[in-house]
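Attaching the record inline, Q. Sequence:
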Amino acid sequence: MIEGLFSIEGKTALVTGGSSGIGAMIARGFVEAGARVYIASRKADVCEAVAKELSAFGTCSALPHDLGTTQGARDLARDLGEREASLNILVNNAGANWAAPIEEYPESGWDKVVSLNLKSVFFLTQSLVPKLAAAGTHEDPARVINVASIDGLQVPSLDTFAYSASKAAVIHMTRVLASKLARKHITVNAVAPGPFQSKMMRETLERFGDGIARQNPLGRIGRPDDIAGTTIYLASRAGSYITGVTIPVDGGISQTR
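Structure, as predicted:
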């Protein structure tokens, strides 16, 4: 019964934003765990290079697309569909941030962040429902894992108005989609990362990393295996009876402040 409980070996996964940061951490974890992984990101050369690098640990292929538009999300779903008859795991990780004082916050920044962080999550998931349903069964559903943020659970310290609003919306949309897709044998959950060594967090951690680590109840910044382990759990048989939840992966920051 316990054997293989946390295995995702042989499953097919798509990780958006998989060429850097948390997406690359998740993609590598999936590859090393034996999944067949596709990574998507906007820059084709970077996407191809990272897929080649991850292929040293297993099977990884690049599907470069710009998910900042609805058409980009649909094109990605189409290209995946030309390669795979079904999809076991979809990780919606692609995202952007924009910080500016409230008096200066631009509409262009708001639209960019919300389109990528929220709109693309919905329309990519919508486009891939048939492939996910083809993989899911009553005992082993297909999985959608949305990457939110602890900034969607609490008020952020920085002026990232669109980012925090979009991540809060992703958390609620996760519950809505979980309700709508359960009968198709698809679970939908979210992870809400705290501070990790990623491109988006690089400048903040360079300036304030020691202080952030000290304020963290567990006293450190997140490691790649922290986020990989949580997503592997949700994607494995161990997580097959869980849907509609958001798991903070933040060392306790969001739950103890």
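The helical segments are 21-32, 44-54, 70-83, 107-135, 161-181, 202-215, 224-235, 253-256. The mean pLDDT is 95.

More tomorrow.
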